[in-house]
DOCKER domain-containing protein (Octopus bimaculoides), 519 residues
Amino acid sequence: MKKIFEILLSFLQTSQSETLQKHIFSIWRSFIRKFQAVLFRGNAKLCGDLCYEILRCCNSRLSSTRKEACALLYLLMRSNFEYSRKTSFTRVHLQKTNFPLEVKDLTKRIRTVLMATAQLKEHEKNPEMLVDLQYCLAKSYASTPELRKTWLESMAKAHLRTKDYSEAAHCYLHISALVSEYLRRRGTYPQGCAAFHMISPNIQTEESSIKDDSGMQDVHYTDSTLIENLEQAARIIEQAERYEVLGDIYKLIIPMYEVARDFERLSESYRKLFEAYNKIVEVMHSGKRLLGKYYRVAFYGQAHFDEENGKEYIYKEPKVTNLSEICDRLFNLYTYRYGKENVKLIMDSKKVNVDELDPKYAFIQVTYVTPYFTKEESKERLTEFERNNNIQRFMFETPFTKNGPAHGSITEQYKLRTILTTSHTFPYVKKRIEIIEHTEQELSPIEVAIDELHNKVIDLQEVVRAVTPDVKKLHLNLQGCVSTQVHAGPLAYAEAFLSKDKVNKYPVGKVAALKDVFK
């Protein structure tokens, strides 16, 4: 029977005429119906080889071959389901498998794999798109840990090439969580990926959803595999200067060394922690650590961007990347693909009216954004690291006046604050994350004054409370005006809103809040 299987499989492996292929697929349909036990009982190698060749045919240039291959794949899955139901009734009954939904999910994942694989070459010069495609592939292999691990490693290598160390480290953290979840299901690591919740909320959400099917049977991870990936993540996290995360990573590693009585590695782990905490003290004293800048990037132009049209992302850029640098990078990236004459940048933060845009151009809008925190969050996130770790909401502000111009006098100056929420928190396995929610807040002139003065007070407090005060920075803060839009200082705000003849024009609560800022 094995010889017959190999002969029939060779017909799928080699090029045939369309007429002959129809007969070959017909033979395979008969084979699957008559010899289910050969394919589905015991070792899955024969079934796996057949699946591989059918999937290859699904990617054929000939539409007739693709149709035949898809029909055969469906028949194979249907036959497997029916055969398994007869021989393993208890398991199927307990799981209450909904076959049509399972098939729909599988075909969706297969389509994702085929499309993403085809586009990898096309986007090889676009680091963000390349990683997005690799991410799609990793996500499609949720039920096959080894393949998901392979694509996460590929993403990590891509990030290391561009020196995006935070993202590379998180790829290895996701791999570690994947391994830990496998070990949990094998009964050797009870915490599973839930142990990673203190590092990033993204990890547990994604790695806890792996499916316990045949793909899980083909891998053999151990505690050593988990330790190896955690240590790799720790090394790269150190390069990213996110030293605070090392404490949480070693909380996962050290217990395993203790169980193994590996005192040499325990000593090395505590030495690394000692160095990490010293570096935290050092960067907090110097204030020279730069954990990245964030930009909102929106794409418009159906003719060029296709599925990306209308989508908005938050891009995490390294160190102190300024607006002109990211604009130049994106402009060069997309002019390489679409042509210099077809790409235009939108430099302001105003809402874009798509109907007013020329459809023959590819438009890219870039806006600088900052992390947004509520008052409660601001009280909890005291350090620079905490304000740049596991962040999901960002904001930018657009000045305007009721009579038209963007800027006006203090008593006429309004601000529209736009708060953006992303699908995942930063840092993540990708350096750009899609925006899923917009919220707008309109600030009245007195609210603008309160906000501007409050921000200035925070800047001054950071300088004054520093272990090693920066006199130059303090001098610049004291000299500078509060609002660059209207060139106003604290006294100008006091005269505009707190003078006896004007104070009654504004809400009592807002006046009290403004007075509190001055105290």
Summary: The chain has four domains: 1-97, 141-288, 290-443, 445-519. The CA atoms of residues 410 and 492 lie 8 Å apart. Strands lie at 293-300, 312-317, 343-346, 362-371, 391-400, 414-426, 432-443.
